[in-house]
Amino acid sequence: MILPALLTSAGFNIVICVGFFSLYSILRKQPYNLKVYFGQRLAQLKPGQKNLYFFDRLIPSAGWLVKAWEATDDDLYACGGIDGLVFIGLIVFCIRIFSIAAVLCIFIVLPVNLFGQAIEQTTPDSQMDIFTIRNVPEGSTGLWAHFFALYVISISAYVLLYVEFKNVARLRLEQAIKFPRKPSHYTVLVRGIPWSPGESYSEVVSKHFSSWYNLSYLAHQMVYRSGAIQKLMMETEKMYKVLAETTITQYVQPITVEALPSSNPLKIVASETESTFRKHKHNNKKDMRDLECAAAFVFFRNRYAAMVASHTIQAKDPMLWVTDFAPEPHDVYWANLCIPYRYLWIRKTLVFIGSILFSVWFLLPTSLVQGLCNLAQLETTFPFLRGIADRKYVNIISGYLPSLVLTFFVLLVPPVMLMFATLEGAVSRSGRKKSACCKVIIFFFWNIFLYNLFTGTWWDRMHLLTVSGLKDMATLLGVLVPGQAPFFMTYIMTTGWASLAYELMQPFVLIVNWFCQFVLMRPEGYGDLYTFPYHTEVPRALLFALLGFTFSILAPLILPFLLVYYFFAYFVYRNQILNVYITRYNTNGSYWPIAHNSAIFSLIVMQSVASIIFGMKRLGTASGFAFILIIFTLLFNLYCRHKFLPLFTNKAVQDLIEMDRHDEHSGKLEEVLSRLLSSYNRVGPYTGNHPTDLLSPEYEVPKDDVDDNQAVVTSSKQEETRFGLYFCFLFKVSNIIK
Hints:
Elements: H1 3-27, H2 34-37, H3 63-70, H4 73-114, H5 143-178, E1 187-191, H6 201-212, E2 217-224, H7 228-245, H8 265-283, H9 285-291, E3 292-300, H10 303-310, E4 322-325, H11 344-373, H12 375-381, H13 394-410, H14 413-423, H15 429-455, H16 458-468, H17 473-480, H18 485-505, H19 507-518, H20 534-551, H21 558-579, H22 591-616, H23 620-644, H24 646-649, H25 653-666, H26 669-676, H27 722-737
Antiparallel strand pairs: 1-3, 1-4, 2-3
Helix pairs in contact: 1-13, 1-18, 3-21, 4-5, 4-20, 4-21, 5-22, 5-23, 7-27, 11-13, 11-14, 11-15, 13-18, 14-15, 15-20, 17-22, 18-20, 18-21, 20-21, 20-22, 22-23
């Protein structure tokens, strides 16, 4: 990539980001956009509150940056839970490590690269190579600057990773103490319940746990299948809410909403149906058995008994009586509970094959992108394209267009991986999103990073491999890796900088909100409450970290682009956690082990490439010590896994027993157990959202906000569907025509 193409891409992205950030600062001040940009905390202006003047609302400002900066960790925890703190901690870790790398590499390594003499004559395609390690001649003593930077960056990463791992583990322990009466502490999810002739699943569960856990077993709640009637009732209730909340008196006679009864008749029908359902349960055991799933929530009298049951093999056949700690009631993914446990391995195998096929298909747009980056080789391969490199718009084609095309294709990856994670049979929403996050990370590391390294100038590479053979692959890799730095610089700007602007603007929700207010004439507008998209943002941050580690000593110019992304990401994501996204469920910091493993992989890639290049540059001593550094990295990772990872997969018995004793001595045990029985009170996967009778609400929405003039969004309005909006729109149009 030529230097003017890189500058063109930078100019495009800077203009887009500045324009979007300024537009966001204006749109967030408008009263009709409150539900879009303050969906978690704000619903409507309080009466008598002082508002901004009209002209003040049209002037861009940076007030949201200041408020995001001033927010404390307690504020972030109250809004985003431990996962929000962990994600911001990941951004802070990247800022710290790449700030250290930037100081070392910009002031020490970059001058060595710039004043090297390995590249005697520069061509338009190799203008950026003089800033990389390729410009350092073989055997040069200047390579020791790269070696010094490599060791300092690696040691700094070890220290920062250890400190962050320790802090997250501490937060998990404090979480268990801060919320000691969560329903999941007493509840075990049982799957693979064996079939017994003449008995229902409920009777089998009761007999099993009464026999083997007689003193600690409390009760159980079966999971039932829901039919088409329950689904239809849910969809009808959503449409009822849309009609009840829509005022259409401007065009029709005021009888539509006024005539609706004050109480929701659908809820009355649902309650009557549920009561009939429960009576039917006792009257017709055979029919109820057909509705039961081979899964149940089993409640215990204390936390220790639940932990023992969840970590114990219940039968000689491991596929039967499979137990694990139950997710929180609002975290349960009900639709997957009825999947037979013995079929899960088949689903996982099919998902694995589907992921491979999707990755293979994605190689086509990646090859297209690399072809756009190398127009000279593209003209040689395809003669009918000759002359395209001489056009005036060539800088846009080779600089901005490749990363833009790749960005649009990358948008498909998180939804597809979330679908794959659902098909695997995840029983919790947080587990589904965590599984999707891991899949997206692997996909990004392979298809975006490794494959682009091997397909950059792939026409020349295929020729060299056929001539020299695979034995020279290491040398070839050391020569060509630094040359891909300009492409990844533009990718960071297009995918990173622009994604932050898109995240702030929330364009889809904003357009739907305007449609509801100005076309459907709904005063309250539209602002659905979403959870934070960790499966999208965590992989993106980790991919950029991989790029930063890999190219820090090879092409230091990539570091300023990374730091700009991470600095703005720090403010943007804090603002989104505080104002936009609601936390319905949490993994309690389980994303950090994923981030830690990704950082270790990035360090190994950096050290491996450095060892190869040092050997290629005839600096054998540095190459050997860089290889030793890989061993230290693996040992450090092994130490962290043994010290901290058990805290992420198990609960401390000492803490559980102490909390059990405290509840027993304080007299709160009976109250806890009585409320526990209704925590998972749900008939099936389609009847309702989540129970409202929780033992201890884990998250409380703060009452103060940006202007101290708004209230919390009510949860009854977050179930609107596009079909309901479309139905309401057609209803209004038909009345206008009449």
